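Sequence in, structure out. Go.
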Amino acid sequence: NVYLPRCISSYVGADITTAILASGMTNDRTAFLVDIGTNGEMALWHQGRLVCCSTAAGPAFEGGGISCGMLAVSGAICKVFVQDGTICYETIDKKAPVGICGTGLIDAVAALRAQGLIDETGYMEEDYTFAGSDVTITVGDIRQMQLAKSAIRSGIDTLLHTCGIDCEQIERFYIAGGFGSFINKESAAAIGLIPHEVLDKVAVVGNGAGTGAAMILQSRACLAQSEQIAAMAETVELSGSPYFMERYVDNMMFL
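Output:
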């Protein structure tokens, strides 16, 4: 037997329906859920209203289109940090560095910004190579990260604008997805991927889509709830939103 959970719209799939179910965000007064990946799907629940959208972030968060980008496998730089004024890094399985994955890239941009090697516009005077490796962050890589992070952040801003609320009113900020589960939230806020105001409200739900799917298979009540979630959700079409485009330009900055 096969059951296909309900999609919310053409661009907001059933994975968000089940992630909303798994997070329990509809039990909060105001909560936000974002699945950060190639397609950044997100939902805002506020006083009984559920609004959703999907924004095309591109493959940068998964290593695509990045000069030394790779998936999160052995040898990938996965964590970058500043220690005693020096940029340091860790790799998956502590192997010799062969590339950098999405979580490492977010950390790297935050670290380069903190060290003054990237300015607020994203300008970097020269490519940066990690010590003891051939792994390099190029000017083009920074540009790809700007495009990706701006798409996600502008989607967040647009849903908040749609409901007429600000970041401070969010009680819980859920981050879902395999990639989202491993990002450093401080680095994400430092580059403007997520608002600083939600840092102490972040809850990582991991594979929310898979967890929600399992809940549906084990409970008819959860199945009914998932159908209710999909039926009540409103989709905000970002392609036709002047506000989204305005925020997209502004959010290219590293502020």
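Check: The longest helix spans residues 139-163. The helical segments are 14-23, 102-114, 139-163, 185-190, 208-218, 220-232, 242-250.
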